[in-house]
Amino acid sequence: VPIGIGDDCAMISPPAGAAILTSVDTFTEGVHFFSGTNPKSIGHKALAVNLSDLAACGAQPLGCLLALSLPTIDDIWLDEFSQGFRALASAHGCPLIGGDTTRSAPGSGVSITVTVFGMVPDPSMVIRRNTAQVGDDIWIADSLGAAAAAVAVRYQRLSPNQLNLLACDHALDYPQPQLLLGQSLRKIASAAIDVSDGLVADLTHILRASAAVDASANSIDPSLGTSLGACLQARAIPVDIALHALPERQALNLALYGGDDYRLCFTASPKNQQTIQNIAQTISIPLHRIGRIVATAGVTLEQRDANESLQELGYEHFR
Amino acid sequence: VPIGIGDDCAMISPPAGAAILTSVDTFTEGVHFFSGTNPKSIGHKALAVNLSDLAACGAQPLGCLLALSLPTIDDIWLDEFSQGFRALASAHGCPLIGGDTTRSAPGSGVSITVTVFGMVPDPSMVIRRNTAQVGDDIWIADSLGAAAAAVAVRYQRLSPNQLNLLACDHALDYPQPQLLLGQSLRKIASAAIDVSDGLVADLTHILRASAAVDASANSIDPSLGTSLGACLQARAIPVDIALHALPERQALNLALYGGDDYRLCFTASPKNQQTIQNIAQTISIPLHRIGRIVATAGVTLEQRDANESLQELGYEHFR
């Protein structure tokens, strides 16, 4: 039984042998979300991005802490914020067990820092990001690009005419952490990450972390550079259906470089292909095999006509 | 072995049967600390206030997460901040295992949210704040009032002439979380809290929380109000020696109502008096028996000439 809000600390009593996973993210008005964003979405997303980190590790949520900095007490705003936060917390069994509410700095807006806790039954079940191997398949869950399209529209870099804008806005404002998928991939995936910065950028995080671990295991100087790369098939990248009226390459670029989708990208031995397809059926999330880990550094895109070397282009949150 | 910075989550593997305690606090420029405060002090204090919550629960630190919002990247500032943070983390065996660094909202300053994790070997060893009993002694560790005097000087509400200002400033900027004391009080203290809002205010938190638990255990409507109070002896309150040149009542008021001292205030059965004195000797922190829990609501101060009913006057951080 966890001790809830009201004591100096909150308490979690994990089962014997369990490992506790934890993550923290700050979500600030004018930096991570636009002023005027629906407070329900802010409450949802501040928790969702953290739950997504638990998902990437294969963890089951246990609870969360909420540190809220507010310029003023606005009851309507707070009520809507809480609705968004609590609905997601409740859907994933992640009770709010403590927190801190303070006045934000003079002249500044809302800032939210959420800490989540989760568990895996034993430490060997954690899915890491630094354990991908040459020859592993690369998988992505569901679809990519819709959230990035919504951001591009809000910045007037993309016309809404060729989009399902409602679907794109929903993808940006209400990302769904893929917790069940993460838990199903324990001992199946060799490495995983949630796509927050963009597929190419986050895949590069897996490649670099895994190459560094390889180098260190083989007593190679890690500064000598990565020997792991990824080869992606252009036709296999699951561009979100909300983008299908866009020119093909434009849609593909949103899927490759756009962030904020919070889909799981994972690697796995080819011998697990059937198991992974079974998981996809069981949890009703399409899982797409989009490429393979190779021994040559960099991310390459295989296309009908020519192969292309992809730049690592991170998604700079609203900057 | 905890997984450190660099993965989606940080990992803690607690011993079987352990309970995990966690706490979060936000520390914002212009709200919780003055602009221009020494960054080393900011780093120290942002962690110290959280470690103090672990201390009040009797927990041993396991690790912490740091969410840092910065207006700009100032390497000198960051270096000094890190020195303050890491020195305290290292002194208490509380490694930084993860975090998030983001740009702060346009026009605003630094904001720091620290989450700490600690453990007790089993859940029955957690010290709560809602378990004080009528007849228990009330104890306070070390001394009170120095941090509040420093705040009053900075607001020009108190002249520095009659103070050891250096000692007061140090108490405010470098509070020492009493972790060893908290751990020593497991199964000895009936309830504990760290004095952040002021002795009277924090003691009132213990009284209200404990009265509510009593009422609920005896099927009494908790809204009927508290039946727990505290009777304090004025001469037993350990006013900090840095305040001894002040008029007696002024110094006493700083000790009673001033916040930011982060000393542990705890209650214990009178049969534990000798054990508690032994703990004081072992860990070299003076422990003062300052009063008793009574069945009459409110906090009363017994003085040579007359008894006085004390107002609950919380310490409003810099407001």
Descriptive notes:
- Chain A is an alpha+beta fold and 319 residues long.
- Chain A contains 8 helices and 12 strands.
- In chain A, the strands form 2 sheets. Chain A has a 7-stranded mixed sheet with strand order 7-9-6-10-8-11-12, sandwiched between helices.
- In chain A, helix 1 (39-57) runs parallel beside helix 2 and helix 3 (146-154) packs across helix 4 (165-173).
- The longest helix of chain A has 19 residues, at 39-57.
- The first copy, chain A, is globular.
Strand and helix layout:
The structure is a homodimer of 319-residue chains.
Chain A: E1 10-12, E2 19-28, H1 39-57, E3 60-70, H2 75-91, E4 96-103, E5 111-120, E6 137-141, H3 146-154, H4 165-173, H5 179-184, E7 191-194, H6 199-217, E8 229-233, H7 248-257, E9 264-268, H8 273-283, E10 287-294, E11 298-302, E12 307-310
Parallel strand pairs in A: 3-4, 8-11
Antiparallel strand pairs in A: 2-5, 3-5, 6-9, 6-10, 7-9, 8-10, 11-12
Helix pairs in contact in A: 1-2, 3-4
Count of beta strands of chain A: 12
What does the overall shape of chain A look like? globular
Residue stretches of chain A low in confidence (pLDDT < 50, at least 5 long) are: 314-319
The helix fraction of chain A, in percent, is 25-40%
Q: Give the percentage of residues in beta strands of chain A.
A: 15-25%
The radius of gyration over CA of chain A amounts to 20 Å
As an assembly, this protein is homodimer
Helix-strand sequence of chain A: EEHEHEEEHHHEHEHEHEEE
N→C terminal distance of chain A: 43 Å
Number of helices of chain A: 8
